[in-house]
Amino acid sequence: MTVKRKSIFIVSGLLAAGLTGCDNxxxxxxxxxxxxxxxxxIPTLTVDxxxxxxxxxxxxxDPYEDWRLDSATRARDLTARMSVEEKAGAMMHxxxxxxxxxxxxxxxxxxxxxQRFVNTFITRMAGDPQHISADNNALQEMxxxxxxxxxxxxxxxxxxxFVNDPNATSxxxxxxxxxxxxxxxxxxxxxxxxxxxxxxxxxxxRAVGIHMALSPQADLATEPxxxxxxxxxxxxxxxxxxxxxxxxxxxQHGDKGLTQDSVITVxxxxxxxGPQLGGLxxxxxxxxxxxxxxxxxxxxxxxxxxxxxANVASVMPYYGQPINLWYKDQLIEEVGxxxxxxxxxxxxxxxxxxxxxxxxxxxxxxxxxxxxATGISDADIAAGVSPWTAxxxxxxxxxxxxxxxxxxxxxxxxxxxxGGTSDPSDLIEAxxxxxxxxxxxxxxxxxxLQQKFELGLFEKPYVDEAKAVKIVGNAEFQQKGDDAQRRAxxxxxxxxxxxxxxxxGKKVFxxxxxxxxxxxxxxxxxxxxxxxxxxxLRVDTPHQNDPHYPFGVSVNFGQLGFEDADTVVLDQKAGTxxxxxxxxxxxxxxxxxxxxxxxxxxxxxxILTNIVDKTDVLLANFGASDEAVLDVxxxxxxxxxxxxxxxxxxxxxxxxxxxxxxxxSVDPLFPIGAGIL
Length: 677
Description:
Structural class: alpha/beta
Low-confidence stretches: 1-31
Oligomer: single chain
Radius of gyration: 26 Å
């Protein structure tokens, strides 16, 4: 055996996918084949003419360093070599800090990796894919210096969905390909397209060194006021089930589990977010209750069946605290799902046989006290104080426990890894005080490490930075995204068959549409509707917000309809209303009898009763560029979507709905599946 220290890149004749895999599908690599290896700091070993990385730098080939062995064997061996502190660090899922330039703060990350032994992080770095890939490579190089050479797993929230900006004339160069939100994929309901989306996002993620998608949402939009509906596939559980499965198969590159080409998917939020009391979100202290007045838990479990059919790698439970929920003649403990053994062990592990990683949602260990609970004051708001200064914490149902007691309860419930924290101190104390069996800790750590082995990160942690620039948001990928943005739009009304419109040479009044983009279609943009021959208005679903809380600002709630500010009936939860300004403009344009097109962004099921009679054409979108909207208006493309949820006819109908029941709005203005094709 020889030891060699230098940077290496060895290419084998064996496809990488054959090197590691799930327990049932692992293949031993025959001695005649060499795995591809990458290293910047780790020495190499030569054994029987083959090269291996000496990850722990001890001069001998240990089982976890042997790429010929299956991933489960390697993970168990590595776990056995880890200290309590290293195991606890592996069970944390930290956040990559960014500096003032938006680049990774390497010094802060080094403290997390080499002192706290954390090796899984979420990145929120955006911008140039060359910078993202370079910084992720720097993190991997730093991780090589750790005692055992464990590579870093990098996760992200979704970053491929279009957000309308009327000031933007095009998608920024270097951006990830932009697609409609999951609701748009549901509106098309083409599982092949959803799988293609996942596959393209997978290639973009892996190109920049991202390995884990904190998605999809298998939650159901049964409560129309809930502010996270835009990340779901709608309210129908069967439609959601097939879309969730296709999404995961695209990201994980098949339905056989993880391979070296996969992106780990984290389906959320078990056992189904959505039936939130009054539609209020449990990111907030005022929205922590999850209720089932229709006794409809089973309906909400169905979409997860699609995830399990696709062999989803990880599952995230929600913050919600189930109230008066019964399962198999037992009352479910009224604690957040991340602390709930009945849900995570008996239901998820037992009934559904899930054997992957359970990752908690962010901040479940932290207390919500002081301004976190009360919100910042009106004086704070007037002084420009950010609500984020109040802090966050979502330990619902276990507020009376210490942080260490919460750690113990969550691990006993079935959590393997804690999202949003790099602080393993309480877990270390719990292990050392024998409050948790070491066998339980070892099982969690092994599951986490096995995913790293299955992705091939121990052999090839680095990415090609030049190649990343060519892959991310390339023309072919964006063309497919643009096509999906067009197809996902829904034509709800077309009075007198006004579409398609011949726009060239017409004087147009625009609202939330970029004038430069409109000019490309031959339109002459005018400043006032009185000067126009046609009006094209883009509006958002009305909503309420509470600026006293961080998630009161970022997660919408309450009223869904277009109303006058002085007569609107707001939700019982106080908050500022958005919708009246757009409504005034719509009425102003209507009074001029202009041919009018309104496109509504549906992040929640809007009440359109007050505007349906004030427009000739009514379109819905789930994230679409101005080009995509204008292409549908002019007939260059066809809206092919159908509503993935029903649109209520009144605020009273919303109030009368049961939070956990689908399709129960009385006399909906537009039923689920509506759309003129």
